[in-house]
């Protein structure tokens, strides 16, 4: 008899598929998108080709990982980088004591993307495309793409000025850009400029640390820029954003049935494409449905999706979720879209398996014992149980 168990998220080494049930906050892959102090351990890469082994040399790590990028010889579409940054990027700057500085404080701007080590190829391709930044290991299972010099940060600022962020992270960038300009003009070396930096930092990410609040209690805090969703700008933005925040789920449940109805006896197969965000970005998910409609105006399936927008977007506590489960919508809209605008990284493997099962369902192979056994095998090979 075919058996299947729900996979527990905390057992997996890589958070590719983000849990949707009983979770009230947005998750990230290995804290992707969160700003932390980057470690100074650096990694050396061998080079990249499709499915080529990448070896990272350090005292902490000596393992082989595989590239899952669609084409490592080409540069990423700039909108892909923006979409991926909306999902996983972080704009920050540190203010630390420095006895050598005139004001006894040092200000350091930073752009950061942190991922699981298995997705190091994405960071390498972002670095190759932008031609700035460094890649550093962080512990034994994560890596960081970091841009911190003023000269190289100018490239980052120029990129997002041209290819604007779509989510609430756009407000973070506006604050970060003000801080960057102050530091670039060396105004942070004056008391007035430095206090302005403190005020701006109060509105960025988690705000001021307790130590900074106690040290500078009279600094005027800066109001966070108001955010407004202005629509999805480009299909490659969706590809980048989904490579970070999207999930491709395959569910196979045990049920009782008769031999004449093997699907009922051996299991019920279902597929789900989903994206989970903080409630603040609810309009982004609604905008995705609208954008799919603009690309497929003649499709009756997409028209139905547009007319039932609220059916696909659900809100729970502080989380908003987009979930598409109907096989006709997956076959006519989701799968063709990501075939044209590819997912990158480890998640591309999940999409390939997801597509494979969708085609099996269309061919009704899931109604046979042989087909269900194959689907179970595929399920166990997806993100949570994938062997590396």
From TrEMBL:
Keyword annotations for this protein?
Answer: Endonuclease, Hydrolase, Mitochondrion, Nuclease
Which InterPro entries does the protein's record reference? Answer: Homing_endonucl, LAGLIDADG_dom, LAGLIDADG_Endonuclease
Tell me the Pfam families matching this sequence: LAGLIDADG_1 (PF00961)
Question: Per the record's keyword annotation, is Nucleotide-binding included, yes or no?
Answer: no
Which GO terms of the molecular function aspect are on file? endonuclease activity
**Ranges for domain Homing endonuclease LAGLIDADG:** 81-179, 238-357
Leader sequence range is none
Give the CC-aspect GO terms.
mitochondrion
Mitochondrion as a keyword? yes
Functional summary from the UniProt entry = Mitochondrial DNA endonuclease involved in intron homing.
Q: What is this protein called?
A: Homing endonuclease
Species of provenance: Pleurotus platypus
Q: What is the lineage of its organism?
A: Eukaryota, Fungi, Dikarya, Basidiomycota, Agaricomycotina
